[in-house]
Amino acid sequence: MTSTASDILVETLLDWGVDTIFGIPGDGINGIVEALRTRQDKIRFIQVRHEESAAFMACAYSKFTGKLGVCLATSGPGGIHLLNGLYDAKLDGASVLAITGLQHHDLISTHTQQDVELDKLYMDVAVYNARIMGGAHVENVVALACRNALARRGVAHITMPVDMQSEAVNHDTRSERNVANHVSDLFARGALLPNDDQLARAAAIINSGSKICILAGAGAIGAGDEVAALAERLGAPVVKALLGKGAVPDDSPYTTGGVGLLGTRPSQEALEECDTLIIVGSSFPYIEFYPKPGKARAVQIDLDPTRIGLRYPVEAGLVGDCARVIDALLPRLDYKEDRSFLTQAQEGMKSWRELMSDRGTRTDIPMKPQVVTHELDKLLKDDAIITTDSGTITTWVARHVTMRGDMKFSCSGNLATMACGVPYAIAAAVAYPGRQVVAVVGDGAFTMLLGELATCVKYGLDIKIIVIKNNSLGQIKWEQMVFLGNPEYACELEPIDFATVAKGFGVPAVTIDDPGQCAEQLSEALARPGPVVIEAVVDTHEPPMPPKATLSQAARLGKALARGTPDGGKIARRIGVDVVREIV
């Protein structure tokens, strides 16, 4: 049988180990879809309900598995819809290949239907971006796209005119320099390690410190044992960026949990008071939470040399895999006999956990959102995969879900986009059938890509979706009031009965609104096979308190309430005693 350009494309993907593609068929990619149909025993095509979801799924698939995530969309609007999810991959360093269609090669740029030159549109998002020019061009381009996405931990994009997709390869004249089969499907992993001088410089800086803090990010995932050994050697607390939540277990004696607005007070204090900072696989973007420049000497470990010194002025940069670099560094480091800085952080964590337990066991009506994640944490298995969306729900998950065992966690980090939580969970369930997968999402974000409930049903995915329903764009509401001193505006959401909506998709649903029944209802819902929607009706006026509330934040909140924030009196009463002990 004569091979088409699309056949070569799919065969090359198989050579690179691709086993799953997320997307939606369309007339601009009919040739590619046909090649997938004839190889459906070798490669899965997961049909989604929105191309944005396909890109989110490809991003999450890469994050959770370390493999290449692949998404497919048709010409014009289909390719445009991918972009938000692709920027999520770009900003979080996920390896993703996006495949799109183009209009007929001799009608491009002639105002034909869906005439969008997607390779031009993708110039910013992609580390590799190419238009296929014929059947003999396919293997070269696809191999390079896969290699670049994996090696550069970013988005690669290839697009092909629809008429070329079904073109017989032997009909395309090969140029004399394009020698057949000259490309390889071998991916060579880098083995960078710092030299002796760089290691010695870093060790001297660290050995001179007395209050050492380790900031671990996504690059530290898989290096948990090494980070713990580093913390033990130095008596250093480990603070974690959100994407590094799984780098070190939350029950480790060394970690003080998250950092930033949704972090913990002990983590913030450790960063404020340290005299030496070791940044391990992180480019945590909120510069205001780092030590003041000059307050601490810093060493950074990262696989990407362009990230060294990106957020904080470091004196030594160690480029390489975090685990291997730490192994090389450890023998040069002195054991710190003085454990007082670590002990101080551990004492702070005892108080913080008591505060979180107090907030998670409140019996108020309306139910506090923390109650849901507090009870969920007790029901999660040690190999559970947790996803969340962007908003106040990120805070509840970050603070109340305890990473342990072989648990995995992810969300949209640097892009912080809404709507990613359910697509992330779908990718996790596809990649790891049999593992417990839970998405904790807000009502605003869930509504955006609600159609993916159909995807859960279509593929029988065992996903539990917890919708924290406060009928508000909560994060924006509190930012308006606390950061700007403005009254809340345009954040109230029209209520949706998500339990009824879920049943329309054929998904069982339960509504939780009583904190006294929350644990039992959650347990029953998690035990049901297949997808389940859990609608948790919570207090819309519960604030995602920063780890250390300040007087200026309180003043701006007071100003916002005085200027006419809806339900200002209720908000003031809700916050009441909880805030007082954190401000004074």
TrEMBL record:
Ranges where the Thiamine pyrophosphate enzyme central domain occurs: 199-329
Boundaries of every Thiamine pyrophosphate enzyme N-terminal TPP-binding domain copy: 4-115
The keyword Transcription regulation is assigned to this record: no
Domain of life where this protein originates: Bacteria
Listed InterPro entries: DHS-like_NAD/FAD-binding_dom (IPR029035), POXB-like (IPR047211), THDP-binding (IPR029061), Thiamin_PyroP_enz_cen_dom (IPR012000), Thiamin_PyroP_enz_TPP-bd_dom (IPR012001), TPP-bd_CS (IPR000399), TPP_enzyme_TPP-bd (IPR011766), TPP_POXB-like (IPR047212)
Gene3D superfamilies in UniProt: 3.40.50.970, TPP-binding domain (3.40.50.1220)
Keywords: Thiamine pyrophosphate, Transferase
One Pfam family linked to the record: TPP_enzyme_N
Segments forming domain Thiamine pyrophosphate enzyme TPP-binding: 389-535
Family listed: Belongs to the TPP enzyme family.
PANTHER family, per the entry: PYRUVATE DEHYDROGENASE [UBIQUINONE]
Protein name: Thiamine pyrophosphate-dependent enzyme
